[in-house]
Write a structure and sequence with these properties.
- The complex is a heterodimer of chains A (about 425) and B (about 200).
- Chain A is mainly alpha-helical.
- Chain A contains 24 helices and no strands.
- The longest helix of chain A is centred in the middle third of the chain and has 34 residues, at about 260-295.
- Chain B has about 200 residues and is an all-alpha fold.
- Chain B is globular.
- The chains are: A mainly alpha (about 425), B mainly alpha (about 200).
- Chains A and B meet through helix 1, helix 2, helix 3, helix 4 and helix 7 of A and helix 2, helix 3, helix 4 and helix 7 of B.
């Protein structure tokens, strides 16, 4: 009864184009009313959902990422990646992946990674004779690394929604991220060999490489400060994000002397609306999730799944396919807040570790960035590369297949994400 | 003339009021938290009041930010299904959806006022700063009413005044901005279709 009110109201509102926050909130409100429960509880949930220290990592990471663009850190990181990987076949493609990897280690957002890296690498690849659709597809596919490689905004949201340790998630994401990156680099090498994309030899020299690394030193220190601070237990994720804001301000204003007031104001502005719309979903999704748990709806779903099959591998496969489908149609953070309260209890009842599930969930969302109809990375790459979305999404299919295989590997071999946190003593 | 421009200016400020307030709260809690980190790591002194103050600023920031996002039409919706129908179907359907949003906000406003009334009757103070909690909770009626005004405003702009609401998520429109931010030189070789050698050759 209560589940039909919840899911019925939610899906009707979603289909008529209500904001996701309203669809969740109104469904919860209707459910509260249908069982004669006091709706003032919603006000308490609204307050408690946001009144939390870990959630503050969200605006802080968004702000530091936005500031890095204006401070010259982003550009220098990409330049370092370019000289490091430029010498193999399809070198610029590999450089792009490497740049996304570096960038992922300072930013927690997939589209921001695609924009920052693509802006430099897509034109560079086009100049070297790469097919422009291919160049855009490589960038769109590796841009998603931004959310698997820590720090990661979706992991912050998962950690908050599931009440799991964000630090532990940040550690667990390292190997899955490297796995995806190496998969893309190998595939890029094979395709580049076949298409005859030459290494980037002409302009390369030892001296130039050293100069680029020297110029990029302060930019390369950013991930060291952020991740080193979190992993050593010196900072909480929220504190690390705050420190990275001030690190970026310092480097941008005093060392690189590129960060100007208008760029700072613009960063504050975009942080405001981006955070505002996510945080209100956080509130309504928590109200929705609380009702689900209270009425044991995940238990019913788990029981239904177990009736179907007791094989955890098949259940993982079903869950992954479901998540990729949802990720194709819905915004990433909303997806995480929505599916976590439903699926996490199901998976834990099957003996899956919550951190393991979180990493797989974030990886599935990463694939959603490069698949139509709502692939944010596709839109950005298409805007930069001036290639149609259809062409990019077609050329991104081989990369998506590699990434989906990586998701299955991580899901079936929990050690990929759980080994490192265990070794580090978390 | 002068009065007119002053009026125009104050309307522009009002139209952006959440934006200003949010930037203030955001800067406030970011600076405060940095101060707190310095105090903890350098001076071994954990402050209770600064954490609480920053959380209060954050709660205000969050809900004002939601109102700001409503003004920009930035709240995430699922809209791909409307592509199957003529434009009017999507418009009418989203208008109804926004009506339901107004109902939601109205109920939240009424209920939060009830909560505040209770708090005035049985005062409850924040643990570190000793602030009566009803003042913090005032944010709910304030922001939900403001958000409702924004929803109506955006619909009037869209359907009656026929203004285009810029899609803030459409990053392709500000790629030039990002380029300028990142200090990337305009690239005439590869990008602006003036490089014939690799452009036409492949076709």
């Amino acid at each position: 009864m209560i589940s039909s009110v919840l899911f019925g109201a939610f899906s009707i509102l979603l289909v008529i184009g209500a904001p996701i926050a309203v669809a969740l909130g109104m469904a919860a409100m209707a459910a509260f009313m249908s069982i004669d429960k006091d709706v003032t509880t919603l006000v308490q949930i609204a307050y408690n959902a946001v009144n939390s220290f870990p959630v503050m990592a969200l605006p802080a990471f968004i702000l530091s990422g936005a500031l890095m663009q204006g401070s010259g850190i982003s550009r220098r990181l990409v330049a370092v990646a370019e000289v490091l990987a430029g010498r193999m076949a399809g070198g610029l493609g590999a450089s792009t992946v490497l740049a996304c990897l570096f960038f992922g280690a300072i930013s927690g957002s997939g589209p921001a990674t695609t924009a920052a890296v693509g802006m430099l690498m897509i034109p560079a690849m086009a100049r070297k004779g790469y097919d422009r659709g291919y160049a855009s597809a490589v960038t769109a596919s590796s841009g998603g690394l931004g959310i698997v490689i820590p720090p990661s905004i979706p992991m912050v949201i998962y950690g908050v929604t599931a009440s799991e340790s964000i630090t532990q998630l940040f550690i667990a994401g390292v190997f899955p991220g490297l796995l995806i990156a190496s998969g893309i680099i190998i595939l890029n090498y094979v395709i580049s060999k076949k298409k005859g994309y030459k290494p980037n030899e002409g302009e390369w020299s030892v001296k130039n490489t050293l100069l680029t690394i020297k110029d990029g030193f302060w930019a390369l220190m950013a991930p060291v400060v952020i991740l080193g601070g979190i992993y050593s237990g010196f900072f909480t994720p929220t504190e690390a994000a705050i420190v990275s804001i001030f690190y970026t301000l310092f480097v941008g204003i005093f060392i690189y002397k590129e960060l100007k007031l208008p760029a700072i104001f613009k960063s504050l502005d975009s942080t405001t609306w981006l955070s505002g719309r996510v945080l209100i979903i956080l509130f309504t999704a928590q109200a929705f999730g609380r009702l689900l748990v209270q009425y044991k709806i995940p238990d019913a779903i788990a029981a239904g799944l177990l009736d179907l099959t007791g094989n955890v591998y098949i259940i993982w496969a079903l869950v992954i396919i479901f998540l990729i489908m949802v990720g194709m149609f819905m915004e990433t953070l909303a997806t995480i807040m929505l599916v976590t309260p439903v699926l996490l209890p199901v998976m834990t009842s099957l003996g899956v570790d919550p951190i393991h599930f979180g990493v797989v969930l974030v990886m599935c969302c990463e694939i959603g960035f490069e698949t139509p109809p709502l692939g944010e990375n596709l839109f950005i790459a298409s805007g930069i590369g001036k290639v149609s979305i259809e062409e990019i999404s077609l050329k991104a299919i081989p990369f998506s297949i590699v990434e989906i295989s990586a998701v299955f590997l991580v899901a079936y071999i929990p050690g990929f994400c759980l080994w490192l946190p265990k070794v580090l003593g978390y | 003339m002068n009065v007119n421009s002053a009026l125009k200016h104050s309307i522009a400020v009002l139209d952006n009021i959440e934006g200003y307030l949010c930037k203030f709260f955001l800067s406030f809690f970011v600076i405060l938290l940095f101060f707190q980190v310095i105090m903890r790591t350098v001076f071994q002194n954990s402050l209770a009041w600064s954490e609480e103050a920053s959380r209060f600023a954050f709660v205000w920031f969050a809900f004002l930010g939601a109102s700001y996002a409503a003004r920009l039409g930035a709240h995430n919706r699922v809209t791909f299904q409307f592509k199957l129908f003529p434009k009017i179907v999507g418009d009418v359907s989203q208008l109804i959806a926004d009506g339901i949003w107004l109902v939601f906000n109205a109920i939240m406003t009424v209920k939060s006022i009830e909560v505040i009334r209770d708090m005035m009757e049985y005062p409850f103070y924040s643990p570190a700063l000793d602030i009566p909690m009803q003042y913090i909770y005032m944010l709910f009626p304030f922001t939900f009413i403001l958000m409702s005004i924004r929803i109506i405003q955006v619909n009037i702009l869209k359907h009656i005044l026929k203004r285009d609401i810029v899609d803030v998520d459409d990053i392709s429109s500000d790629i030039e901005d990002i380029k300028r931010d990142m200090k990337i030189a305009p690239d005439n070789n590869g990008m602006n279709n003036s490089g014939p050698e690799n452009e036409r050759g492949s076709k």
